[in-house]
Structure to design on (448 residues):
């Protein structure tokens, strides 16, 4: 599947950000700006390497060396640039030791620094790579920055300081954390909007799905990345999870555990596909928690709920969001929530649950997802998302997302691989599934 997706991208969209597999041409999404920055190459390069696809890896590596630069006149998402481009380059460097990746990573990191020039140190969402001018999304609660975005720079920037020797990157992310620690949190929760100028929260909307998700993941993973030395990160994680459990974790009449959202003073009984990563996160955080068995079980419970969202669809692929209302459980109820865009979060949780429990059902569930992807998302020219998981012949969206190469196929591959490939005591994955070596773990290259 990876070779087919990569070969299709190579054939029809080489150098572009993503592939339109049906139109057989380049897809340039707004998050990457207007330029062709090779997002699929940089996002997919470590997957190729891990899978031993050496010829394909070399082609991607050579393009990055000769054609990738991050200084054109375009505006990109700081968050996406960080997790996909910086994360992909750092991971490629970690796996191969190739200095070229390190140099490119440092250049990307430097380009992102102006976004942090705010009174609070909370970065803005968008940056112009040529001018360094920054702004926030107009729709984001009166000029606010977004929790998942500014809270998911930590891992990459600390690693970048460690390999470059330049303290500026680590300083920037520690400043974000200090700002957050000083703020009072309504009900102990982190709202998804924060104003980078005033340091005040925007509207009180809490979510472990879209716009909240990877903030929590990074608190845990920074603790892991530092060899469990960053105790502040772990403390912030534990406090956040305790409040999520008491305020957002719900149990449906049918017994499904799910992570609801809280907005405008009430619980919204909706769970995003994006929030399905949390099953793996709970399991990953079990070691070091006050009750390891409880968090492994919570991981299992979330995995079961997210599998149900797949199993209750005609295609056996899960919707973008699903609800628990009345007689409806683990199903999308609104047309704009019924699509599937090749997302990885459910199979990501299967991967972690397999590693921690060795329960064969996680591999069975992963195989179900593989068969569904092959049946409904594979086209003559690559893989596409679909617009309605509940119909037998769904319309296709004609986009092969770069994260399909970076995450979905990587987690599926790792689910069926031996534990010695990227062992979890030596490697930690960023939110785009790019593995970084845990400090002082003697992480070795998985493939020579």
């Amino acid at each position: 599947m990876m070779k087919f997706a990569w070969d299709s991208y190579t054939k029809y969209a080489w150098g572009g950000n993503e592939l339109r597999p049906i139109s057989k041409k380049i897809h340039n999404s707004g998050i990457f700006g207007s330029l062709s920055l090779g997002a699929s190459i940089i996002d997919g390069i470590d997957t190729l390497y891990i899978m031993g696809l050496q010829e394909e890896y070399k082609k991607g590596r050579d393009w990055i060396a000769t054609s990738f630069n991050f200084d054109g006149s375009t505006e990109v998402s700081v968050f996406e640039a960080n997790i996909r481009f910086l994360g992909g380059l750092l991971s490629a460097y970690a796996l191969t030791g190739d200095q070229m990746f390190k140099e490119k990573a440092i250049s990307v990191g430097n380009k992102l620094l102006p976004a942090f020039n705010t009174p609070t140190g909370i970065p803005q969402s968008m940056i112009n790579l040529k001018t360094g001018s920054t702004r926030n999304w107009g729709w984001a609660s009166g000029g606010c920055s977004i929790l998942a975005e500014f809270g998911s720079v930590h891992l990459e920037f600390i690693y970048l300081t460690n390999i470059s020797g330049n303290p500026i990157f680590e300083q920037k992310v520690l400043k974000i954390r200090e700002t957050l620690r000083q703020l009072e949190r309504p009900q102990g929760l982190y709202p998804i909007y924060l104003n980078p100028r005033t340091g005040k929260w925007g509207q009180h909307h809490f979510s472990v799905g879209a716009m909240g998700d990877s903030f929590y993941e990074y608190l845990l993973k920074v603790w892991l990345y530092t060899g469990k030395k960053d105790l502040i990160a772990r403390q912030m994680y534990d406090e956040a999870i305790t409040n999520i459990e008491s305020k957002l974790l719900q149990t449906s009449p049918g017994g499904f555990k799910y992570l609801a959202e809280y907005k405008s003073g009430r619980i919204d009984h909706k769970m995003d596909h994006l929030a399905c990563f949390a099953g793996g996160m709970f399991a990953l955080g079990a070691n070091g928690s006050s009750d390891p068995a409880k968090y492994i079980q919570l991981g299992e419970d979330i995995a079961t709920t997210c599998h149900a969202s797949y199993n209750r669809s005609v295609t056996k692929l899960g919707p973008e969001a699903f609800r628990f209302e009345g007689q409806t459980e683990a199903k999308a109820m609104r047309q704009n929530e019924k699509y599937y865009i090749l997302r990885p979060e459910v199979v990501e949780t299967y991967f972690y649950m397999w590693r921690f429990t060795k329960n064969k059902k996680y591999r069975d569930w992963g195989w179900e997802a593989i068969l569904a992807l092959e049946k409904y998302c594979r086209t003559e020219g690559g893989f596409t998302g679909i617009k309605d998981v509940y119909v037998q012949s769904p319309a296709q969206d004609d986009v092969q997302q770069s994260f399909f190469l970076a995450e979905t196929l990587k987690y599926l591959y790792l689910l069926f691989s031996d534990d010695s490939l990227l062992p979890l005591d030596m490697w930690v994955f960023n939110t785009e599934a790019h593995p970084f070596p845990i400090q002082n773990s003697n992480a070795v290259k998985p493939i020579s």
About this structure: Residues 107 and 374 are 38 Å apart (CA to CA). The domain at 2-437 is CATH 1.50.10.10 (Glycosyltransferase).
